[in-house]
Amino acid sequence: MLRSVNPATGEQIAVHEELSPTALERKLDLAASAFRRWRETSLQDRADLLGNIAYCFEENKDALARMASLEMGKTYRSANAEVEKSAAGFRVYAERGPDMLAPRMQPLTGGGTAETRWLPLGPVLAVMPWNFPYWQVVRFLAPAIMAGNVGLLKHASIVQGVAGLLEEMVLAAGAPEGLFQNLAIRSSAVAAIIADDRVAAVTLTGSEGAGKSVAEAAGRNLKKVVLELGGSDPFIVMPSADLDAAVKQAVTARIQNSGQSCICAKRMIVHADIYDAFLERFADGMRRVKAGDPFDEASDMGPLSSLEQRDTVLKQVEEAKALGATLLFGGEAPEGPGAFLSAGVLTDVPLDSPLMAEEIFGPIAMVFKAADLDDAIRIANDIPFGLGSSVWTRDEAEQEQFIRRIEAGMTAVNQMLASSPEAPFGGIKRSGHGRELGPYGMHEFMNLKTIMHPAAGSVAGSVATE
């Protein structure tokens, strides 16, 4: 059984039955059959379906948002925004997907042309986390549908209500049976599904450990895999920055989704000349953050996703303190039900501490002092992750230095980092490989086929060489 528990109250919401081996087999057969039909549909039919799914999300926004708030604790306000963003993601691929898949022609030096086309691969298995339970799925599903693939979802066990609603929305939009299916299974069943010949590829968003397991299974079976793993993103502030704007965005970037986002800014790296001013204002902003009932408009953030997740963050804070870090305030679990945790700030974290190789998935910020630009970049890169980054400077030369030298898949300039349907999303180093979103995310799970055409009036038959 898979249990949904309200992290704000500790009360059980629902119990979901796991798929039996026989039921799982039927779903895999259905996915393979659906793919054979869906791959033959026109690009316009695929785009029309995506537009219909977006409409279903918009029409059912309240029910969808409420389920996310109940199952994983995000505020109802942010859950609404996530549903709206998900609808926008479907619409982007509906409107721009056909152009992303347009064939390309390239003249050849020996005469003739090479045509390239993007063709679908087959059923794609998505192993998705609970923190953005709709948007994470849309990031794979919208491009998969547009590509002519079909989707199989292994969602986090604690958000099976969300997973069920996702499948309902796709079917309500008029999708053929089997185009998208939720698999109510545990992580232990994933490797066998990756090995199944009916599954063409796999994508995962999650922890480094989960990424290694999925990558190993995919490699063993020669399946394409995209991994979006953890991050400990730097938020660098230089003397020329608009300090008020930087501080405001730093607070938002650290506490969004209760600090449970891969691209939350987790390490504030501040130039020595403005360090004290930044820290004073940032600490004041973090102290004002109110954790409370996700359905209360006055709450800045809800609880963490579970008591286990809260305990993990508390342990990380205690370990940092034991190694010399200073907890200025926060990081406290209030009495009473729920997995609530107050926002907090750590300073003086040793750069060689184990915390630098971990991701704090909660509303605890680390603040570091940098002597200059080179030192800021050194601190930013001195971790095993490389997902996102944010840099705050009005000096264009400094901006270029950060863009070129920060080891990350993404850099936001004078703004907090956020994902967008149009822009490629992903990281390097131990933050994973491959990209989601934009045309690149769709092309990850397609066959780039080359078609060789002879020059006009020529006769084929020359000796070919590789």
From TrEMBL:
It comes from Sphingosinicella rhizophila. InterPro entries: Ald_DH/histidinol_DH (IPR016161), Ald_DH_C (IPR016163), Ald_DH_N (IPR016162), Aldehyde_DH_dom (IPR015590), ALDH_GabD1-like (IPR044148), GABD/Sad-like (IPR047110). CDD domains: ALDH_SSADH1_GabD1. The keyword Oxidoreductase applies. Gene3D superfamilies: Aldehyde Dehydrogenase, Chain A, domain 1, Aldehyde Dehydrogenase, Chain A, domain 2. This is NAD-dependent succinate-semialdehyde dehydrogenase. It comes from the Bacteria. Keywords: NADP, Oxidoreductase. Transmembrane segments: none annotated. Coiled coil: none annotated. The keyword Oxidoreductase applies. Pfam families: Aldedh. Belongs to the aldehyde dehydrogenase family. Residues 3-451 form the Aldehyde dehydrogenase domain. PANTHER family: SUCCINATE SEMIALDEHYDE DEHYDROGENASE [NAD(P)+] SAD.
